[in-house]
Amino acid sequence: MRLYVRLRLPALLAVTVLTSALLTGRGTAGDLGPAAAPAGRAQPLPAVIDGGAWRSGHLQGMALDRARGAMYFSYTDRLVKTDLGGRPTGSVTGISGHLGDLDLHPGDGRVYGSLEHKAGNAFYIAVFDPGRITRMNMDARTSGVMTTVHLQQVADDYTADMNGDGVFDGNTGNTPDHRYGTSGIDGVAFGPALGPGDGLRLTVAYGIYSNTARSDNDHQILLQYDTTDWARYERPPGGADPHRSGPDSYTGRYFVHTGNTTYGVQNLAWDPATRNWLLAVYKGKKPAFPNYTLFVVDGAVPARPGLIRGQAVPRPGNLLRLEPTGLLHLPSGIHGRRGGGQYGLVPVGDGTHYVAETGTETSGGVTLQKGRAVLHRWTGAADPFEPVVPRAAAARR
């Protein structure tokens, strides 16, 4: 099964320079998403970076750190750091909850990831300090390499009692509860503001339960945050009693009409080459929709106010447009593609992307989860990712 990952490379330039390059598309250092190394000093990237095999959950996402010569792999309950040759150089273990998609902040050089703690109805952005990840099996709670910021806005939508019976039905999609069908968060990416305002934004994508019996869950939902002052919210990860330290609000909430999917946006990426947003999802199940697995949000068209379809009571929202390319489903008017990316998508910034491939292997009677990053070029076709190196040669590597 193919997976795509986002590459983010801190070029170690001033944040203002990085942000300008990212948002204007000028320059090669710090393009939003996977920041490229400074022009003239970037070394060629390998066609394949092996993420290893681990006794963990399956691969969830990746982030490229070109300045440090590292790749980061999220395996649900651990973060693995490798060099660009695929040799493990450090890991963070003991992560409570579900660690999902990753991205690298092009200014501060840290790795940000989605973290769900559904037992506590809590949702976080996990922040890792790559410079301090220096050995294997560093404890998430005691080593000081990881902090978390709580997103109360997500928790409010997740726990919403939509049928008014006074009971929250918990972690299940077979219920009218959960506003917009919210199941939590997964995709994360740094990129430009989708609405008013300038500067770098952290974009967080909701997970959405698969539920074919309701009509208010047919949008992907993106929240944007300005992380400039997030240091005041950061806390070590909690255990059974998770903290609630986080921002009071977001800078914007945006809706993309795609039809219902299975657990929403698994991987989110801003592609500085096309200046579009890529949304990789698990295929939906509603027969009225095309159920594509990759959607492209048109980065040239700002969000517009409108009514969110499918709501029992009409609700206003900021609506984003899908780029009118790829496949078109005429009955719904939805554009999309059959591409992968559900387990990681990392635009490099030059038209290529690292796409994750996963599998399993058995060692001593234990099933291990494997992952690797494989370099692809964007073709824009119905299946838009083409391996830079033919698959047979990449497999031998």
Plain-language structure description:
This protein is mainly β. The chain has one domain: 5 Propeller (Tachylectin-2, Chain A). The chain is 6% helix and 40% strand. The protein is built from three helices and 25 strands. The protein has helices at 15-24, 152-158, 391-396, and strands at residues 48-54, 61-65, 70-74, 79-83, 88-93, 98-104, 111-117, 122-128, 138-139, 146-150, 182-192, 200-208, 219-225, 252-257, 262-271, 276-282, 294-297, 304-308, 315-319, 327-329, 334-336, 345-347, 352-363, 366-378, 385-387. The strands form six sheets. A six-stranded mixed sheet has the order 11-12-13-14-19-18. Strands 1, 22, 23, 24 and 25 form a five-stranded antiparallel sheet that branches. Strands 2-3-4-5-9 form a five-stranded mixed sheet, with no helix packed on it. The chain is globular, with a radius of gyration of 19 Å.
Features:
six-stranded mixed β-sheet, disordered N terminus, globular, 3 helices, mainly beta, Tachylectin-2, Chain A, 397 residues, 6% helix, five-stranded antiparallel β-sheet
Short summary:
By secondary structure, the protein is mainly beta.
Strand order of the largest sheet: 11-12-13-14-19-18
Helix content range:
under 10%
How many domains would you count in the coordinates?
Answer: 1
Distance between termini? 18 Å
Main beta-sheet annotation: 6 strands, mixed
Named CATH topology: Tachylectin-2, Chain A
How much of the sequence lies in strands comes to 35-45%
Tell me, briefly, the overall form: globular
Q: Name the poorly predicted regions.
A: 1-40
Keywords: Signal
